[in-house]
Amino acid sequence: MRFVIITGISGAGKTEAMKAFEDLGYFCVDNLPPVLLPKFAELCAQSEGRINRIALVVDIRGGGFFDSLFSSLRLLEEEGYRYEILYLEAEDDVIIRRFKESRRPHPLAGEGRIADAIQAEKSRLEKLKGKASLIIDTSNITVRQLREKIINRFGQAHEGLKMVITIVSFGFSHGIPLDADLVFDVRFLPNPFYVDSLRELDGNSQEVADYVLKWPVTTKFLSKLYSLIDFLIPQYINEGKLQLVIGIGCTGGRHRSVTIANKLRDFIKAKGYKALVEHRDIS
To answer: So what's the pLDDT on residue 112?
Structure first.
């Protein structure tokens, strides 16, 4: 039985997340009082396999009931039920804008300011966030992108697909991907940005790739990176991980990280794993 608890900041996209789970065939319940979690899990376990994928939205809308969440989670663990926590968050200004656009009140706002309510909610959820299996920041992604992340992570088990490995190239100047499990910094490699003929190209071009890959330091780095990844992937699979996100970062995310991400994708695919590449900051 796969048990997913959807939680996080109000306005971060929990409703859209639940829709994605529904489309994946999960039995979904919104705003279940946490005290009912153990009993609900027991009922699902007694369904003789008819209900074996469950997604529940549990958040501060439960009011006083929310404080019983951790005791309920402990009971789940004691009864042998495995669960995952999907935590959704977004930047404060994004949350405020979304509430203003929807004209809906924040659950903790009362007659006060939304900004104060957001801080109060973050404080109450901080411990729960620390238990999350996956954290998604929805500040700069579309509903479709959120859906894709959920499908990649939670849509594999019942389809019998292999673990999906996503290599994300990025620029440190734009921030590290929040969902990255592993991050490698390639800013020590020679930078094509300082070559006039290469500056306006990106790491997908053969000219930039040839430049990045021609240096002995790059060859040595790739050899060590391949060896590490080759060791780690089977360990993650044995641990039951369904998605692995590997971040490859350079300064701007346009040249070196793109080339190295492409090379790593090719290496992983050659090993027989499902590998995707995403160049987050190439534009």
So the answer is: 67
